[in-house]
Amino acid sequence: MNKSFLGSSIVNQFVCKLLFVCFILSNFHCYSQNNPTKLSISFSESKLKSALDSIESKTNFRFYYLENWFGDKTITKDFNNESIEEILKELCKNTQVNFYFFDDKKIIFTQNGIIYNELPTGFFIEVDNKDTISITSTKRISPPVFYAENKIQNKTILETVRIGKSDTNTAAQFFVLQGQVRIKKTGEPIPDLSIVSKDRGIGTVTNVEGNYSIRLPVGQNILKTSSMGIKGTERQVLIFNNGTLDFELEESLEMLEEVVVEADAAKNVEEAITGTTQIVSEESKNIPLVLGERDILQVAKALPGISSAGEGATGFNVRGGKTDQNLILLDDAVIYNPSHFFGIFQALNPFTTKGVEIFKGNIPAEYGGRLSSVFDIETKDGNLEKFSGEASVGPVTANLALEIPLTKEKSSLVFGARGAYSDWILKSLDEESLNNSTASFYDGIIKYNNKVNESNDVRATGYFSRDAFSITSDSIYNYSNRGFSVRWDHKFNDKNTGSLILANSQYKFNIDYDGESNNDFRLGYSIDETEIKLKFNYFLNNKHTLSYGIASKLYGVNPGFIYPEGNESAIQSLSIAKEKALESALFVSDEFKITDKLMFDVGLRYSFFAALGKSEQRIYEDGVPRNEGSIIDTVQYGNNEIIKTYGGPELRASARYFLKPDLSLKASFNNGYQFIHTLSNNTTVSPIDTWKLSDTNIKPQRGNQYSLGLYQNLKDNVYELSLEGYYKTSKDVLDFKTGAQILLNETIETEVLQGEGKSYGVELLLRKNKGRLNGWLAYTYSRSLIKFNSEFSEERINNGEFFPSNYDKPHDISLITNYKFTRRYSISANFVYQTGRPITYPIGTYQFNNAEYVYYSDRNEFRIPDYYRLDLGVNIEGNHKIKKFAHSFWTISVYNVLGRNNPYSVFFVTEDGGVKALQSSIFSIPIPSITYNFKF
Prior knowledge:
This protein is mainly beta. The protein has 8 helices and 57 strands. Mean pLDDT is 82; it is low at 1-12, 14-36, 125-140, 151-155 and 254-263.
């Protein structure tokens, strides 16, 4: 019969301590030394309590324990002539229970801890440093754990959690606690949550998936959690060994009370990786943008080092890089054109978007294929408890997002849709030729998430967007994005997790021309890719966290086609041969601490690219300019035959050193390959730009980046200050000969120039995260230069010297502020200043065959006027009553308050025998808007 006399944690401690003293005084010997009794016994799906009862019935032993220590654990195993000690070890193997032989007939079980029969040497020596447990002994023995019940200020007893169980084979004084933090109501992970051991002065923060890891001393720790919008908690945690502790926390009303632009300051200082930024979708709520639309990608342009070629231009130029050098992911699927309406709106529903993490310095090893940056955009997980949603109505668009629980606390669905009624905006632009134009767009997203069990999560996302516009009365342009991804996250054990990801993406555009002449046509282009990725995270120990995996993607490109429309069309059909390629990679990285001050994050990625047939590759004569006349041979490749391979190692290394607890110095280096390029001879990104795969005649781009920065928090994280410098070099960047034909060109390599690039700059960010007045000031000084040199004059630009790229803007200033008068009323302002981008001007004329021609300067020798803009907004929250159907939010804003006629481009025409300069603008007058949002 069981004699469960340890009735509570206090009794447990008292008995253990009393027995401990008795053992020292009486010098008892354990059973394993004196009693060699063997036992044969079998168990089949037996609960551990039943197994212990069976052993008691077959022996003279009596066991002392609490039944709830073993829970519902079972055992199935046969023991043949095994000692009692070995049998009990197997029963306790996957529990937090230890045992001790009191004498020849009594065995005492303990939860987590162990019973000692000797004191370590120096046990009674007083230690001043509470963070160091100084117990030494000639015998390896785990130090004992003593604790007292703790109370917080309101006299409530803290919840006590025991982690791991003591092991006589280790004398470790620190162990690793890890786990995941989620919102209790919805099951969503909580990123950037601070977890601090109050009595030890040790802390950490959760990552974007809510995971954390902290190294704690053995024994008692009081853990405190805190984050904006999350109720803080305190727990007493007793550390006996490595283990896992998950938190489910409740949201607080601070999400409605505080509207701040905040990134986690501690993470900014503590992490090793340089040049990272996180933007939460909610941050764009109070930033006045054009036509009242929330747009996290426009907010990104207000951060240091990120810009675009001009107002309304699609794409990003990150640290002097081209727009095609950015990898934009939506739930692991690539988005090739994340914008609507010529870059004025983002192609992502702001109500379904959780946030974006931007890597513009040291890019983690798991990402590849782009040289400048990664925009990792994450969609919200659906509410697991109740049906909810959010919607808005503005002057141009209407948005809707719904969160639908499917199985309570287990699975849900997120659905988002947007549509535009934007034809009127084209009529208001300062361009007479656009008055009869039309434009519309829509996008939709659906996401399914299912928490299968404690070890498995499944997420699936489907996305589609489409734009259609007619700038002239005879042509209709349309382009679309499609993305789909499935992700399975699996937890193998406390140290190992893994993810399997399958994603597919497509981008395509079409032009339908229906004119008065007989040359009607339909023109199109598409690119498709499918990727599979397998990645793992392994917590090796408290100094090393490993990430490794493999990824592979298959590209399919239709470079273009044109077909006649109608029986009378004179257009000849043409279809450029399709392209195919396989891009694969192996990657591994290690985040490891050398000391408490010095930490490294080192990764290695090996990329491999193979251009595949079916294809026809042209061979050009050496020593002469590349053109159709210098083709000496044509090589045919069969389906899936390897045409050309490229690849090599990519190093990703960064380091962080604490100069002070709130001040860190970081440095990094990374290099990479990019095997895909955009083909465009426009100054800014166009929806009809095409993508080209590397082959025998077009090499992949290669790049290196070095960065160094200082990061500091001031006044208890109220202020965040960072200063970072960078230097980048690149090889085989693409440009085109003057007047190059890009679309439907079978010998596109004859129009391509590949050269060198370099960029450098300094980025300053001052951010105020708390208080009635919050926001940030960002300043960037940067230069972006390119060089195209050749022994042939027709393949040389600006005499083969470095010259400014189209997006070179030395000075860039952004100021974003929000002032909160009350919980319901606030005002916002957004000011932007940028140096005018480079342009090529005519500097003279000359006569030839009785005709006058314009003579142009060196490429990008001059600049258009500087750009500046001020936007203002008023934000009105609805009342904060708890019991109401929906919470409302009004945004009244004016874009370009000063009415600045910022030039989008400057171009030149010959008229009446002379050359005239003309300037075009996107928004040359103030644009007011009012948007109504409500959440239910």
